[in-house]
From TrEMBL:
Pfam families: Peptidase_M99, Peptidase_M99_C. It comes from Campylobacter ornithocola. It comes from the Bacteria. SUPFAM superfamilies: Zn-dependent exopeptidases (SSF53187). This is Deacylase.
Length: 462
């Protein structure tokens, strides 16, 4: 057993957090597909939040985008520029033994997809670029708030006139500046002409040398994240228009609209839809959270830059560079006896699946189920808490999932000797495995003596 686990751990280390690739929209005959990349460096949240929103909050109604929002996902979660050095200097040459080899290969494959004719790479750069020296933060060596191209033209069938397209992008962004000092500029690095050693190794040069249009957009690191995202999205929307791509989005493209889109509550589903964590200003820790010993430790989040990660004695949920909360596991054998339960909410009988949140105005009650006990976390009335009318003032608020003290867990357990029949559920899609996990043997031994965990719902008091 010990040997088996150590092999498992090894395999997981090799395939650490991989970046996501998602499509939005449908490609048309005229090939208007744009590839958008974010998170090339882990410490550039403007780029990876902007790219993430293009998947979570945009609906492409004509044409298609392919988005990889979190290229250096490990570095994003670890909050550093690049775990194994700068990913954006590895496109000309990479050693097969480089830990980023697999990642670079995946990115190149996306770029070389015949369907893709334009590539947009989103970065956060220092200060504000100015053609003439103005100050320490505003001068020709700064990268912030620029549209960057490697050369004036590219030998491609579409979007060959890089300079004029980027110029137009700059003009468009400058019509929507929040402050005059944020003004965008075009920066042509003339990568090949000037034999720019760094830029020759970068992603955009790889794109143009493969006869496709590449634009990099840099938002200034001097700006708060939501303003960086605002400028990134202004740029991206202009390029999409250029590619004849149409879309709708769920928020207004204003600093406030972007801020609210980034800060909206996260939803993380665990273990094939057994548990929902609704993270709206979450508590710092979620204790005694049921974790399975007999099924995959996996999760699905409401965006692509969220990950559940193993730490030494806990798990953490990270949203981009930000820690959301820590999970302290309590291991159980999981049961598939039920996938839905009844709840009486404010006098009304409803049926709900697990991993759902129910809104409660005054009170709720769980009708008892044979062979099952109910545990309302933060309500202390005994072993089984079914058939009891529960209102908010009876709850111990320190057990709430959130700092507003409104959201509580209701957990269902199969009694040890009930021997309820397992149901077969539909296969769940898009769940990602939590990496590098090995369950302590002691926890497994303990779990085998306990009741089985069936599922959880959340109640939110209004
Ligand atoms: Zn960058």
């Amino acid at each position: 057993m010990r040997l088996f686990l150590s092999i498992l751990v090894f395999v997981n280390v090799v395939f650490a957090l991989e970046f996501s690739v998602k499509e939005n929209g449908k490609s048309l005959d005229d090939n208007n597909t744009v590839l958008i990349l974010g998170g090339m460096q882990g410490d550039e949240p403007g780029g990876f939040h902007a790219a993430s929103l293009l998947l979570s909050d945009y609906n492409i109604t004509k044409g298609k985008i392919i988005v990889a929002p979190n290229l250096a996902f490990e570095s994003i979660i670890a909050r550093n520029r690049g775990n194994f050095g700068d990913l954006n200097r590895k496109f000309a040459y990479i050693d097969e033994n480089d830990p980023d080899f697999h990642t670079i290969e995946r990115i190149k494959k996306l770029i070389l997809d015949p369907e893709v004719n334009m590539v947009i790479n989103l970065h956060d750069g220092s200060g504000f670029y100015r053609p003439q020296y103005e100050s320490k933060d505003k001068n020709p060596n700064r990268w912030g708030n620029t549209s960057i191209i490697d050369q004036s033209e590219v030998n491609s069938t579409k979007y060959a006139d890089l300079e004029n397209i980027a110029k137009e992008a700059v003009e468009n962004i400058n019509k929507a500046l929040i402050k005059e000092e944020h003004q965008y500029h075009l920066k042509n690095t003339k990568t090949q002409e000037s034999n720019d050693k760094d830029m020759l190794k970068a992603l955009t040069y790889f794109v143009v040398s493969n006869h496709k249009a590449a634009f990099a957009n840099e938002a200034s690191k001097n700006l708060p994240t939501h303003l960086r995202v605002y400028y990134h999205l202004l740029a991206v929307e202009y390029y999409l228009k250029k590619a004849n791509i149409e879309f709708q989005r769920t928020f207004d493209l204003t600093p406030n609209g972007v801020y609210n889109a980034i800060e909206k509550p996260l939803e993380v589903k665990l273990f094939n839809d057994k548990i929902l964590l609704y993270l709206d200003k979450p508590a710092n820790a979620i204790n005694f959270l049921p974790f399975p010993i007999n099924q995959a430790l996996n999760y699905k989040a409401s965006n692509e830059i969220t990950a559940v990660v193993l730490n030494s004695n806990s798990f953490s949920i990270n949203y981009g560079n930000r820690l959301q909360t820590r999970l302290y596991p309590d291991y159980f054998e999981f049961s598939n006896a039920l996938d839905s339960v009844e709840v009486i909410v404010d006098g009304k009988n409803i049926k709900t699946n697990f991993a759902q949140k129910i809104m409660v105005k005054n009170n709720f009650k769980i009708p008892s189920i044979a062979g099952v006990r109910v545990n309302v976390i933060g309500f202390d009335r005994g072993v089984d808490e079914s058939d009891i009318l529960i209102s908010k003032n009876q709850m111990q608020s320190r057990y709430s999932l959130d700092k507003k003290r409104k959201i509580y867990r209701v957990e269902f357990y199969e009694l040890k000797n009930a021997n309820l029949a397992d149901q077969v559920f539909e296969k769940k899609n898009n769940f990602k495995e939590i990496k590098k996990v090995s369950i302590p043997a002691k926890a497994i031994e303990k779990a085998e003596k306990k009741d089985k965990f069936i599922g959880m719902i959340l109640v939110e008091f209004q």
